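Quick log. Single chain, no ligands specified.
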Amino acid sequence: MRTLFTSLVFVLIQSSVFAQVHISGKISDSRDNPLPGANIFIQNTYDGATADSLGHFVLKTNSKGFQTLSATFIGYKPYLLKLNLDSAKNITVNIRLQESDDQIDEVVINAGAFEASDEKKAVVLRVFDIATTPSAQGDIFGALGTLPGVQKVGEDGRVFVRGGEGYETKTFMDGMLVSSPYLSKMPDMPTRGRFSPMLFSGTLFSTGAYSAEYGQALSSIVDMKTNSVETQDQSSISVMTVGMMGSTTKCWNKSSLSLNGDYVTSGLSNAINKQQVEWIKSPVGVDGTLMYRLKTGKTGLFKTFGTFNHSTSEMLYPNTQTGMSQNILMNSSNIYLNNTFGSMLSEKWMVKSGLAWNFDSQKFDLDQDLVATQTRMIQAKLGFSHFLNDRTELKFGADWINYSYQQKIRMNGAYRLPFTNNQLSGFAEIEYKLSKKFATRLGMRLENSSLLNETTLVPRFSGAYKTGKHSQISLAGGQFYQNPEDEYLKFAPQLQPEKASHAVATWQYLTDLKTFRIEGYLKKYSGLVKYNHPLAINSSDYSNAGSGSAEGVDIFWRDKETFNLSDYWISYSWINARRNYKDYPMLATPGYVSEHNLSVVYKRFFEQLRTYASVTYSFASSRPYHDPNFSGFMNSKTQAYNDISLSLTYIMELFGKQSVLHLMVNNLAGFDNVFGYNFLNTPNAAGKYESTPIKSPFVRQVILLVSINL
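-> predicted structure:
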């Protein structure tokens, strides 16, 4: 486990203050003509104003510290100004906007990608959005679950995208691979991401047909961009029903250092919230994070990120297959180090480099049996961008990954299953803007695996055409390879990479405060791993004879304008997915796929009450499962999934310090969601295969948190 609401607390503390600041002034063009109707606002808040007929404006804000004032007007370049809101209670600013040039309204290639960056105009999810979505519980991957294309797989917790399994989504940090992005999990229990969203300035989430820079992901990539140099010293401490944590940041002229640590124990929370799991030892975790940032020269930025996690838990697991309860003790440790450097070499050349190391250890004691797994990954990466002219950009680079795996099993004997793989990759990609309305991107990626003794060369393509001032259509496609999962390679290193082909078409309408997006896609799988039976251990039992397909439509609508001090979005996905892989006897819909998925997220700030409220409703249609009591394969379906989650955050003073009180309730209505069933291997005396439902570990979860900004 990790701290559930650290992100939310920090965001709201930093945006709260109990004495308003008044910002006033005039907004005009370069000829000093007033611009009535221009929008002026503090970024990442609801504090804003509109210029009157003479261009004058007045806005009030409760924000504190260094904030960014933004001014926008149709036909003019956006204006950004850094302000120190602690310097005065009344600030006067006179703004002059410059007319937009050809670059401002240009087409942007975006098929298959949701950009969650505070630096981009086409923002879908920001850090603030992730932190304040109650169903996400402060988890980046949980928040991505409210976007279209993502399946709701409540018993797993990973990101399942457009018919792909969780392992088909790869996670990166500043372009560097994170080989173990999720916490270790117990059987039929959901996991969550290791990292707080507050560590990042944004997250690029691609649901398909992504750039040639990224590889080894059949379905999707998540690239988290870490923060730049911090500008303000700050510290905080939080006490929760699930533990406590503290953080501190120290800033210098060109560098900053941030330290975070937390201790999480779910003992009290498990006692408060009715459990559907028999815990022998409630989950306990210790985490630590270090972030160092250093500006070098005029354009260089060096980043170091390091994190450590150790967790342990013990449960009595009802092993339906054997008909007996099984005692499972888990101990896990993880270390991740990430070093990156980026700089402009000249006006036309930019370099990015990185070095990452990931260590993960998991130990499971299963009724005196032991399964211990260790993985190590080292990655080195170097990339360049060359701006040939105003319309053409060339990107190319290479990376090397050394990955080692070892599993030790003590079960009716001692066994050791190791393997090592060196993955060498190179990519090149050119983006060319033929006109203000049309842009295209062509790319190639070359990959070589020493373990599989296989070299692949795959193409990627994207294009976009602007159909109106706020709308465009985009097309993207390509081929994507991924090495089989570790659990197969440890027995069958002769397997070949799995393959998927993507085709994506997108139409999007986008303004500053509204987004509508509809996207259709088609995926074809080949070379998927098949085996004779689930417990196969001989290499000859495995092959790449599997195949599959998925097609669907994703719809996204977001509105931050219609309702006062409110923000909401609606995501809907329809999918038709079929696979013949693993031990499937025929082509069938996998058990993790729901044909229909819906998410509705609504947020509002009640200024007079100093309270921020958020509510999320999630729906997923029934999922197929195989019931051995009936003929056929994947012959039954679960009930539909429903969830309502609520969070309330009250901004206050405690001991003279800025503080927040946060309450969150998951599954408020107490829906009895069933994700599937486990069946006995043998029938009972009546000839029936008995089953146990797979459910959430809790019926309803209530968590309370108090955080103080020191």
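Residues 6-14 form the longest helix (9 residues).
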